[in-house]
Amino acid sequence: MQDQYRTVAHAGVHETEVNRSRFLCALAPAATEREAQEFVAAVRKEHADANHNCWAYVIGADASVQKASDDGEPGGTAGVPMLQMLLRRDMRYVVAVVTRYFGGVKLGAGGLIRAYGGAVGEAVDALGIVTRRRFRLATVTVDHQRAGKVQNDLRATGRAVRDVRYGEVVTIEIGLPDADVAAFRAWLADATAGTARFDLGGEAYGDA
Description:
Distance between the termini: 16 Å
Number of helices: 5
Low-confidence stretches: none
Number of strands: 10
Shape: elongated
Mean pLDDT: 91
Order of helices and strands: EEEHEEHEHEHEEHE
Strand content: 35-45%
């Protein structure tokens, strides 16, 4: 797995104009290919009167899924430049749809490539990027007497506390970089006089 990836900070739309044609780039994070396809379908429905709704998406921290469509524009002038822009910006788990309202002036192949790729680049700049890092999920189980201090210490050292559950004991779910697991295990044993239980879970990505 990749240690980190970049994606768009949030969904949004950015508009540019080239020779009287309007280019609206709708950009959104997408956790799965299905999510990306649903986003494309929603934009196409919203702009059913547009000349073209071209799209591209990249799914997977290693960019394992890459797809694009020219939606009626000359082959290779829309979807591929959009995809290339996403890859050039190292964007992952992201979908882009560029809606074109024709303004009466033909742009030619080179002009279309620049317009579609540029619309995506400008939208990425406008909406912003977040970096998500890979970490291990882990569970700390501790008695009520020590739980408050453990939680405070975790937050004070910048640990990602994901969930806290109270029962007979207190269960705290956290995220840890792989490299920190051994040191954290030792710290926890010291902080709780060896009374806390520590269980490692799977892997996930979270905000850097």
